[in-house]
Amino acid sequence: MFEAAYGMEHTPFSRDVPTDKLYDSLMMQEILGRLKYAAERQLFAVLTGDCGTGKTTTIRRFVDRLDKGKFQVLYLSDSKLTPRHFYKGLLEQLGSEAKFYRGDSKRQLHREIELMRGIRGIQPVVVVDEAHLLDKEMLEEVRFLLNFKMDAQSPMALILVGQSELWDRLRLQSFSAIRQRIDIQFKLGHYDRAQVGEYVARHLKYAGVDQQFFSDGALDEIHRFSGGSARLINKLCTHCLLYGSQNGFRIIDDHMVKRVIEGELS
């Protein structure tokens, strides 16, 4: 709708923007580099961040950049994940039917991974999203899974992704055994005011327009409302573009942003 009014070739603030067209901050470059290092060295990594900071999008970017001839990503996202369903989900992605008992499935997974690495030369990368919802039993199973060949090596790269409360839990004394196994830990932060401006400009460029439709004052209000959260930036900018196109505005200023916030997003 607003795309035609503003001469856009693509929708700028949607979830399906190609990963190579997304805003690439220095923080994001560093995190993607560390995730790649974890995949190459088969490490245990934990990525956390507040709601809306782009954790799943970061993983999507990471996966898209991996060499498909060297790595196979196994992705799980289940708030009710149990050890049995954990192994079942991984084995199904490897094309195998999981055995009923947890111990049998675990040994089966280790065999499949050894075949994958030894014969095909492919390293597995397991990503568990929404990991802040995992219970203690499932987190303990993660520790047992990483015990391989008398703890001499890890059978896979394992990346837990979750909201900030995941790290708060792992810092508890009861999770010290798991925490000590973590090789790399990083947290996604919020964008500052300058980064919000760069973010908006990058997405407008993807849409195929060079004109800056948002005034400096509008960007101030967008930063203030969103707190630097990518999800809220996308939501507010989309609502502003809809409002602007329906009312014939070429430039979106701070007054218009405030009106949208109060009228549609309060």
What does this 3D model show about the protein?
- With 266 residues, the chain is an alpha/beta fold.
- The protein folds into two domains: 26-188, P-loop containing nucleotide triphosphate hydrolases (Rossmann fold); 192-264, Helicase, Ruva Protein, domain 3, CATH 1.10.8.60.
- It is built from twelve helices and five strands.
- A five-stranded parallel β-sheet has the order 2-3-4-1-5, sandwiched between helices.
- Helix 2 crosses helix 3, helix 10 (216-226) packs across helix 11 (230-246) and helix 11 (230-246) packs across helix 12.
- The chain is elongated and about 65 Å long.
- The mean pLDDT is 91.
Total number of domains? 2
Instruction: Give the overall silhouette.
Output: elongated
Residue windows where pLDDT falls under 50 for at least 5 positions: none
Q: Which CATH top level class of the largest domain fits?
A: Alpha Beta
Tell me the helix content: 40-55%
For the record, the CATH architecture of the largest domain stands as 3-Layer(aba) Sandwich
Please tell me the overall pLDDT.
91
User: Cα-atom Rg, whole angstroms?
Assistant: 22 Å
**First-to-last CA distance:** 23 Å
Structural class: alpha/beta
In short:
This protein has 266 residues and is an alpha/beta fold. The protein has helices spanning 2-5, 26-41, 55-65, 83-93, 102-118, 136-145, 165-170, 176-179, 193-206, 216-226, 230-246, 254-264, and strands at 44-49, 71-77, 123-129, 157-163, 184-188.
